[in-house]
Amino acid sequence: MTLREMNAYKRLPSPAVAADGCDLVLADGRRVLDLYGGHCVNTLGGGDRALGEVLRSQWDRLSFQTNLLDHPPRIAFLEAFAKNLPPGDWEVFCTNSGAEANENALKIALAVTGRRRVVAFAGAFHGRTAGAAAVTDTKNPQFPSAPFDVVRSPWGDATAVDGTVAAVILEPIQSLAGVVEPPAGFLESLRKACDAHGATLIFDEVQTGNGRLGRPWASQHFGVVPDLFTTAKGAAGGLPIGLTLAKSQIAARVPAGLLGSTFGGGPLVLAAATEVSRRIAAPGFLENVRATSAALRKAALCLSEEGRGAARGPIERVRGSGLLLGLVLRPGNAGAAVRDALLARGVLVGTSDDPRVLRLSPPLTLPPSAAAQLAEAVSSLTSLEVPA
Fold first, then answer.
1. What residues does 282 pair with on adjacent strands?
2. More confident residue, 150 or 313
3. 276: CATH
4. Number of domains present in the structure of the chain
5. Taking the CB of the first residue and of the last residue of the chain, which one, N or C, has fewer CB atoms within 10 A?
6. How far apart are CA 388 and CA 385, in angstroms?
7. Residue 42 placed within a domain
């Protein structure tokens, strides 16, 4: 009798066997700088001692409990998480993943508006479950039909919002699409249109949240506050979590029994999420995110320390904010080939759905000095012909 994993992932050739801060140790013995951070998950890096102690301590006291009983980690989480929130009164529901968080945001919007149309955008990725997949832009639909009506709009177009729309859902910066930023005025136009027509505005902050843009949330970064927002990935520093946030006036209208989760909001995961929230709020933490972002931008473009001169090497420009950055390659370069060349030089980056865009989403604890390693790796590519 044998058991093999389904062939769902195209993995790189050398497995990771250990993590130390912002470095990975591969099975072949190489130590590489991790500028991908496990798809925005490793907020505090690998093996963070403070987080490890929190988990060990919580495991010894209460590792899991049914949601029929309250527990101290929930109280501590609500207090710590509230300190980073956008303005207003909010309520949260806990699950296990970004897809679940988005499903629940959509359920809430449909229920409180009594409508069944949702506006989603070209390039979007919101998850692989039925509702989340329905508002995801993919060439291969994952379910025969959507559980609600979907209006698909071009990125940057707010004109589809009318009185029949229950919700508009979007990533404030589209990560998988290639770190695509919102056009000027787009988020403001969506906010105005939703207010005018009684629709709910949902920000999918699975990747942009938890300090990744150099502010706690994209709503603070862009100055536009949604009615609901979701997060997951980095919110618990490596443990599965999904969070759906709704303004209190919306949460008050959620029908009883609409939401539920067996594992969501367990004490161990919430203890981890509390530690992450506290670290994000700590003095200097987000300042480091912004400083490291600036250093990585210069390094990727092979600019001088002062940021002067023309960009060299295979990278044409950098887009994104904080530590969610897209490296746009010059024509003739393929993302996967440049990714592999950088890995051979000791730096791990990610690809995207755009074959000319690489992604950086490192731990938020990465120091600005680490950018020198990226600069060295990119500089060594300047004389290479990287095949498209």
1. none
2. 150
3. 3.40.640.10
4. 2
5. N
6. 9
7. no
The overall average pLDDT reported for the chain is: 95
Position 388 in a domain: no
Contact yes or no for 289/364 (Cβ under 8 A): yes
Q: What per-residue confidence (pLDDT) applies to 354?
A: 97
pTM strictly above 0.90: yes
pLDDT in tens, 273-322: 999 999 999 999 999 999 999 999 999 998 756 556 566 789 999 999 99
Edge-first strand listing for the sheet containing 200-204: 90-95, 242-247, 228-231, 200-204, 165-170, 117-121, 149-153
Do 293 and 159 lie in a common domain? Answer: no
**Residue 197 structure tokens:** 């027509």
Looking at the structure, do residues 195 and 271 belong to the same domain, yes or no?
A: yes
Would you state the structure tokens that stand for residue 110, as one six-digit string? 């449909």
Is 182 inside a domain boundary? Answer: yes
Helix spans in the chain (H): 37-40, 49-61, 72-82, 98-113, 130-134, 186-197, 218-222, 248-251, 267-281, 285-300, 335-344, 371-379
For residue 65, give both structure tokens.
């409990």
- Give the pLDDT of residue 249: 98
* Distance of alpha carbon 13 from the chain centroid: 25
Query: What is the 3-state composition of the chain as percent helix, strand, coil, each rounded to the nearest 5?
Result: 35, 20, 50
Closest by Cα among 130, 120, 76, 35 to 278: 76
Class of residue 307 by CB neighbours under 10 A (exposed 0-12, middle 13-18, buried 19+): exposed
- Residue 92: give the domain boundaries: 49-281
Residues 138, 100: one domain? yes
Indicate whether 7 belongs to any domain: no
**Residue in the block written with tokens 């023309």:** 310
| 26 and 67 belong to one structural domain | no
**DSSP at 239:** B
pLDDT tens digits, one per residue of 33-66: 999 999 999 999 999 999 999 999 999 999 999 9
From 221, 253, 281, give the residue that closes a domain. Answer: 281
Q: What confidence tens digit (pLDDT) does each residue in 201-222 have?
A: 999 999 999 999 999 999 999 9
**229 and 258 share one domain:** yes
Q: Which residue, 229, 250, 281, sits at the end of a domain?
A: 281
